[in-house]
Design goal:
Elements: H1 2-14, H2 69-84, H3 90-94, E1 99-107, E2 113-120, H4 125-137, E3 154-161
Antiparallel strand pairs: 1-2, 1-3
Helix pairs in contact: 1-2
């Protein structure tokens, strides 16, 4: 239970970073949802680990805004929801394939997957395909709060596959 509490706290504290490199997004860091292997707080389910991110420097004259708790909760629920649909392909496991696939994806306000693509291969076509299939299986994803703008509905998620 203590491991889950630490995991949940790390997840909620840092899950608010949109897709890096999108038009109009600036140089913000990507969400880092790392999964499949390693610590498994849910009895075999891969852990999601969200490293801390740096906030963008404030625009001069702009008031600082803290993320609203409902947005933080939604992003936490989104990461947990996607994680539940992750599988380690038997073929990849039996042949010892491991790696991290980075996937870029965007959703709409109804939680439907609009686009997804591998932006950095894990080195295994099987694991890369599983990463994309995970997002398809996860539909519909949790709906974002109404005030979340479209440009915050795109993400980059590294998905880690480790055999332990």
């Amino acid at each position: 239970m203590k491991l889950f509490a630490q995991w949940a706290l790390a997840l909620v504290a840092t899950l608010a970073i949109p897709l890096a490199g999108c038009a109009g997004m600036g140089d913000r860091s990507p969400i880092q949802a790392v999964s499949a292997g390693g610590d498994r707080p849910f009895g075999g389910a891969p852990a999601v680990e969200i490293p801390p991110s740096e906030a963008a420097p404030p625009t001069p004259g702009a008031a600082l805004q803290k993320p609203r708790i409902d947005i933080i909760r939604w992003k936490s629920a989104l990461a947990a929801h996607i994680e539940r649909f992750k599988r380690y392909p038997a073929k990849a496991r039996s042949s010892g394939e491991q790696g991290i696939a980075k996937v870029a994806f965007s959703i709409d306000h109804q939680g439907r997957l609009l686009t997804s693509r591998i932006v950095e291969s894990s080195g295994s076509p099987t694991l890369d395909q599983e990463t994309l299939a995970m997002l398809v299986r996860a539909q519909p994803m949790p709906r974002p709060p109404g005030e979340v703008p479209d440009n915050q509905l795109s993400f980059v998620v590294p998905v880690r596959f480790n055999i332990r």
